[in-house]
Design goal:
Two copies of one chain form a homodimer.
Chain A (H helix, E strand, L loop, with lengths): L2 E5 L6 E6 L6 H6 L5 E7 L3 H11 L4 E7 L8 H13 L7 E6 L1 H13 L5 E6 L2 H7 L4 E6 L2 E8 L4 E5 L8 H18 L1 H15 L3 H21 L14 H11 L6 H18 L5 H13 L12 H9 L11 E6 L2 E5 L4 H11 L4
Parallel strand pairs in A: 2-9, 3-4, 3-5, 5-6, 6-9
Antiparallel strand pairs in A: 1-2, 7-8, 10-11
Helix pairs in contact in A: 3-4, 5-6, 5-8, 6-7, 6-8, 6-10, 7-8, 9-10, 9-12, 10-11, 10-13
Chain lengths: 362, 362
């Protein structure tokens, strides 16, 4: 039951293959490799689970491996250099292909290495988390963190192919699966009310990791993101809608310290706050807001902002987000389920009220 | 007597302004800056000479400065990070402009920082060496070195504008001026015999740094390079012609250790070797070869390969050049003055004879 989705970006178009057991499909992988050389980039968590199978699928190629430490704290220049070191030590030339086997951090770093090695080589993604499958697979964003800011150094670099094997999600911890579901719900909220309704009816199948449900949410999420990205490859306009819940979410992640809440968890609570604010501003009905909150709760995700951050601190944390332009805070809000917009046109007093109301009681 | 050349690259097109005293033209600079923030990147050699004038020209902007150590040995990840550190410490956002004030190393590093900062910000070049004015101003190549190879990490990133002030060449050491002239002669040799004839008639004016001569060689060199790059932005085909003399030259630079010969000097001797080989292969007349060698000599540049490298070592050094594809050494050769081609179709015995004949007697 393999589904293939085409991401249309002119000469940088590429396919996303979605289905169970695809990691063993040497034929699909071979079709996306231009030369004879492959550099497989993975981490210490994924390597024991899937590295040998991936290497076997690349048996027809000269395939080397870099195994990086696992974790957002390693998404830095020093770890990135390990990929360049390996490429040069094994004399990979411009016709090499860098393959990311892992979650978002591995995809971001391997993709950035591919963007910069000899000014750009081919890149293939094999995302192994739901979040990476529904989010990092589309958009071409790659990069690393700087001590003074997340994702501050990077490039847009599109993969030649994405292979989303739903079977590898079997080994994903439940908490990480749910964090991925947060981004899935996001697509329903911002532009696909039909998908939102489907999720209301099928959340149990998703959480039970039923293959058909997983294939559907990955395909539908990637399709939604691909449509947005095709309209705005380098992030000037509609692409900002993908940040629903993210400005609130980044405030949570920064305020609590990275690693406390998962990104998807912070986004989930952030989407609830965005919905609440949208109701207070007369944009969204209370009923739509309740449905959003209920679906997020059913996915086992947080619906309240953490009590540990008080309102003033929260506002301050939101103000340093990248989405601030010329000093004005811009937020993604909702006019209803499936209808998002970006605006700086809201009363900050009401934002404060909303944050206060959305905070968990301490 | 300002000349403006348009580099045509679709939506990435940009102007090159050439003339004396342009560093003070705040109006030209302002026209190329999108936001209010400017990060001036320069080095310890250029800063005492021109930094204050450049800062004055950006008086209407919030302008910060990074002064890097001078030299190819600092074109590395650690030095690059200093640019990111400064951008983040001063809270530059996506609408910032990175300005390179310096030679090729500063242009490569500042350009690469601009390519990667927040996945790409605006870039302006103020090249202060003749080599940078005629070579790095066009092509969009940016990057840094890796301990295992030069320019191995980088990106294609076009500037918004290049400002080539011929007056700043007054302070350029003579040896560096001549090294720049090597690349100027190269354009005549590979595709512009009329320009070659002009150089034969006007080399004295060039070496005397007469403004009209400098403006002419910069304009003509950039025009030639721009035409090649427009036809081949990401280096798949004709752009390889720009490497005349470079495979020999890289062998010299690597073999003697970087810093022994200047890049332009190595290219000069390499072009003489390429011309000699072209004669031996029956491609070029002896007379054309003699004219090439005579012009290079008149520019005060080396016309012989260094005696310190014997033939076998030289061949080995050439084989590790980036231009080797699938194990076959490809060279830029000449069918005559103004007519270059790339070929792997030559007898290696004749290449050895040519290298032996071109070596200086020890």
């Amino acid at each position: 039951m393999m589904h293939t989705l085409a991401v249309s970006l002119g000469e940088r178009s590429y396919p996303i293959h979605i289905g169970p057991g695809l990691l063993d499909r040497a034929d699909l992988l071979a079709a996306s490799i231009a030369g004879r050389h492959v550099m497989l980039v993975t981490n210490t968590t994924v390597a024991p689970l899937y590295l040998e199978r991936a290497r076997a699928a690349f048996a027809g190629f000269q395939c080397e491996t870099v195994v990086l430490p696992d974790g957002e704290q390693y998404k830095d220049m020093g770890t990135l250099m390990q990929i360049f070191d390996a490429l040069l030590a094994h004399r990979h030339d411009r016709r090499t292909t860098v393959v990311a086997l892992g979650g978002g951090v591995i995809g971001d770093m391997a993709g950035f290495a591919a963007a910069c090695y000899q000014r750009g080589v081919a890149f293939v993604q094999i995302p192994t988390t739901l979040l990476a499958q529904v989010d990092s697979s589309v958009g071409g964003k790659t990069g690393i963190n700087h001590p003074l800011g997340k994702n501050m150094i990077g490039a847009f670099h599109q993969p030649r192919m994405v292979l989303a094997d739903t079977s590898v999600l079997d080994t994903l911890p439940g908490r990480e699966l749910r964090a991925g579901v947060a981004e899935v719900i996001k697509y329903g909220l911002i532009r696909d009310d039909e998908f939102f309704v489907w999720l209301e009816a099928n959340m149990d199948a998703v959480l039970a990791r039923r293959t058909d449900a997983l294939v559907h949410i990955i395909e539908r999420s990637c399709r939604n993101k691909a449509e947005v990205v095709a309209a705005d490859e380098h992030e000037g306009g509609v692409r900002a809608l993908l940040n629903l819940g993210h400005t609130f979410g980044h405030a949570i992640e920064t305020g609590l310290g990275y690693g406390e809440w998962l990104h998807g968890e912070a986004v989930a609570a952030g989407m609830c706050a965005a919905a609440d604010l949208s109701v207070r501003l007369g944009r969204m009905t209370q009923n739509d807001c309740d449905r959003a909150r209920a679906l997020i709760a059913r996915a086992g995700l947080p619906v309240e902002l953490p009590a540990a951050l008080d309102v003033e601190r929260f506002i301050k944390l939101m103000a340093v987000d990248k989405k601030v332009e010329a000093g004005r805070l811009r937020l993604v809000l909702l006019d209803g389920i499936g209808r998002a917009l970006v605006t700086a046109d809201f009363d900050h007093k009401i934002l404060r009220q909303s944050i206060a109301a959305c905070r968990a009681s301490a």
